[in-house]
Amino acid sequence: MIRRHFRRPDHSVPELNMASLPDLIFTVLFFFMIVTHMRDVEKQVTYQVPAGTEVEKQQHKSSVVHIYIGKPLDGSSDNYLIQLNNRLATTADIARFIDNERQQMSAEDRERMVVSIEADRDVPMSIVNDVKQALRKSYALNISYAATERR
Amino acid sequence: MLLIFFLVTSSMDAGKGLQRQLPPPPQEQEQVADILDSDIMTVTLNAEGQLTMNGDTVSLQRLQEEVTKFAAVNPHHRVVAIKTDPQTRYNDYFQLQNALVAAYKPLKCPPRVSEIVDESSQKGGQP
């Protein structure tokens, strides 16, 4: 009949060549391995940093030491606590913490060490001042108030 | 698997912050710097976040303009002294620091700020 005159469309799709897929995935994997650094600190406090107009990027990640100040995540207390590395601490521990961090750094990182204070907006200044005094005593004089950029 | 692992555990964000310098710890024999009263601007930040400059209540913006004017005369000599209350919110203090950095920006000189801390120990000015 008439149908016979039309060519039947070929339904079979040509097989996709998967040989290059592992290469692709490995490229992406290596890219991420190089670009990223591991998150080595599990945050135990919650905080919201303030926003400022004059903020600058922290230059060298390996020379930045973080001090977190916020309320505990598990809600065990309503006070503001200080977190150094993976544990909660007091201002008395800061000197030892800074010394430890210093020793782990390479010589050039040690010279440009910056302490990043990541504090919640509502933290009372008494805590922040105590932290700063402790940092002064350990000669960690370059500090950075962590913040987000505001236009 | 590995790819997803790296995606989850990595943090891409570069930290941002307001860079400041702290003065070195107080020495045994402190040299008392001779600074004229007229070369010191006292800024107080109380627990409610209210700013006072040499006794007058000011807004943050006005303070910034005043500091620029004040420091422009002799940026390496004139000092801004900050006094905060222990109950002052960190955010208010941060905004003040932010304003000071902004105020000193056109002067091409790091802010000379002295902080008066409660234990009646005074933080020296910054070089």
Which percent range fits the helix content of chain A? 25-40%
Describe the sheet with the most strands of chain B: 5 strands, mixed
Q: How much of the polypeptide of chain B forms β-strand, as a percent range?
A: 15-25%
SSE class of chain B: alpha/beta
Q: How confident overall, as mean pLDDT of chain B? A: 77
- First-last Cα distance of chain B: 52 Å
What does this structure look like?
- The complex is a heterodimer of chains A (151) and B (127).
- By secondary structure, chain A is α/β, with parallel strands linked by helices.
- Chain A is built from 4 helices and 10 strands; from the N terminus they run αβββββββααβαββ.
- In chain A, 29% of the residues lie in helices and 25% in strands.
- Chain A has a domain at 45-149: Nucleotidyltransferase, domain 5 (2-Layer Sandwich), CATH 3.30.420.270.
- Chain A is elongated and about 90 Å long.
- Chain B is of the alpha/beta class and 127 residues long.
- Chain B has one domain: Nucleotidyltransferase, domain 5 (2-Layer Sandwich), CATH 3.30.420.
- Chain B is 28% helix and 24% strand.
- Chain B contains 3 helices and 7 strands.
- Chain B has helices at 2-9, 60-72, 90-104, and strands spanning 10-11, 16-21, 40-45, 51-53, 56-58, 79-84, 113-116.
- Chain B has a 5-stranded mixed β-sheet, with helices on one face.
- In chain B, strand 3 (40-45) and strand 4 form a beta hairpin.
- The longest helix of chain B is centred in the C-terminal third of the chain and has 15 residues, at 90-104.
- Mean pLDDT of chain B is 77; it is low at 120-127.
- Chains A and B meet through helix 1, strand 1, strand 4, strand 5 and strand 8 of A and helix 1, strand 1, strand 2 and helix 3 of B.
- Strand 1 (37-38) of chain A pairs antiparallel with strand 1 of chain B, so a sheet runs across the interface.
